[in-house]
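mind reviewing this fold:
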Amino acid sequence: MKVDRRFVMAGAAALALPVPLRAEAATTLRAAAAARGIGFGTAIGARGFADPAYRALIERECAVVTPENAMKWPALCPGPDRWVFDDADRIVGWATRAGMAVRGHTLFWPRQDRLPGWVANYDFGTKPIAAADQMVGRHVVTVAKRYAGKVGSFDVVNEVIDPETGSYRDSVLAKASGNIARLVALAFQLAREAAPKAELAYNDYMDWGDGSARHRAGVLRLLEGLRKADIPIDALGIQAHVTAGGDAAAIARREREWRAFLDEVTGMGLKLVVTEFDVDDRDIAGPPGQRDRAVADYARAWSDVLLAYRPLTGFVTWGLSDRFSWLDGFRPRGDGQHKRGCPYDDQFRPKPMRDALVAAFGAGAAR
């Protein structure tokens, strides 16, 4: 699938040629991003963490690490009075020793299917509002306090906006509290008190794709409401699980709409953080090399837009290598081939996408 070259900025001529795989890259992703004042990093899960070669790759290429699942509510708190910090502590400890910053993902994810099972079946009693406040407040404070000073940025609230309606998602917590917006505000307030020096972000997967206008509008309403109420929020986390594809006209329209959205967000005084970047190639046909080229071009086009915004402070991929990517388990390709949406392949060899990101950082706005 061809990407309009108008949206690929400086370095496009070099990127148009096949990029050979090589054992070592001339510069690291962390260095390329740091030259623009941006922290580059990746998420790591339990499988990846168990691989010393993968950890070494991340230590070389990254300045930031996000625990992929280890810091989510079901992992940390599998029972109402049971806490399990082992996996999260291991990742935070390793990252700290290696000189990498840590992003905490996530303190409050009020999607019904992402809550711990015990929350879904919880008896909120005769005072459900107070019970919901206490439940959410205890979790946010416990986790934020534990990692205060070690985690530099928290996704305080994750995916509370329904992409289909642009309104708040329904859940057992929404029903108990009677007003999920109040719980969202409470989470930010308590996170600030528990970790006063951490960056606090709202994180969601609205993007420049077709059909996401309602989602973007809902996120803007949420952010505007938090700002007007003087709730402590510093940044918008942009998940950026993007799907490659679309003709030139479609991409031009997406870019216009996306820039308008980003202008609104930054106009509120909020920073931007790319928190979960990868490129789904399920709609791209052809052999791996051809798909890699298309993924790289799309990644460059998308990244160029974000990197033009000076309030962008971080750029985190959701996996550095295809070996540990979540993408194969999410709407698999029809031809049965593995998806190739990360900067490195499953043998930890750099792909054109990696070089596209290095070039995009080099062409990004100075900070």
